[in-house]
Amino acid sequence: MKIVCDDKIPFLRGVFEPYAEVVYLPGAAICAADVRDADAIVTRTRTRCGRALLEGSSVRIIASATIGYDHIDTAWCESHGIAWANAPGCNSGSVAQYIASALLALATNHGFDLRGMTLGIVGVGHVGTKVARAAQSLGMRVLLNDPPRAAAEGPASFVSLDEIIAKSNIITLHVPLTEETRHLFDASRLASMRPDQILINTSRGEVVDGEALKKALKSHQIKAAVLDVWENEPDIDPDLAELVEIATPHIAGYSLDGKAAGTTAAVRFIARQLGIPGLLDFSVILPPATDASYDVTRDSDALKADLTAFEHLRETYPVRREF
Predict the structure, then answer these.
(1) Rounded to two decimals, what is the model's pTM?
(2) Mind listing the pLDDT tens digit for each residue in 309-321?
(3) Would residue 71 show up in a list of annotated catalytic residues for this protein?
(4) Which of the following is catalytic: 60, 71, 149, 250?
């Protein structure tokens, strides 16, 4: 067996070597020639897994050590007998920690008290649920918007997106990237926001229309924005990065705990599919978290100092432990 792996996935080296030939490559550089004779791929978001990469290959399994899976052409893979899996919820605690730090930084910068303010959460899956708990622990009221959950569970606990915009002081986005959510916050929706509102996006860059957000910030149509994700990563818009209050290089989910959970999920999927014994849990090797403090402004300062360092900052991200 042959397994091709993104070389930046932590804890992975040595795991599959007793059972397969393992090749480690930079995720963005993995090409069709690299996977032509591979049985499996272990990836992150930088490897586009679709026809261009996979057609004519022997790949039959793809595991992504990430929550998101928009880098995988799932329909094409399924139609060609390729099993795939992401790692839902793996970094949800990490993103909730990021949001809590961002909320406290915003409160400090603007001199407001979070207690009694309203946070509108768009997308209430693994991440949004933990964000809601964090916001409530800070004394905030939360409004939840999640049409799929509202349809499945009933509308009592959820509100419309229009109500989120009408009643929230801060809006935070935690939706997957789909055709329905692409530019969910476009020029029209941003125009419906107020000059006292703040928008946070840690989901996918394409959920927000970057050009429209740039105009909204320049014209003070909204108060501020926090972006961890961007259109055209890693080549982000320097003008937009200058305008947003907190700008980070897609690291909201980059706690060591989240990385361990993502790798665990990917390894377990590959092991089940290939019949490899031993389903590992990498979280057990982490030392106790003696310091789970986190200041998001440090990550923002590092990116704003050099926007071309986007990928370098991700690849060399320091150890961060969750609450």
Answers:
(1) 0.90
(2) 999 999 999 999 9
(3) no
(4) 250
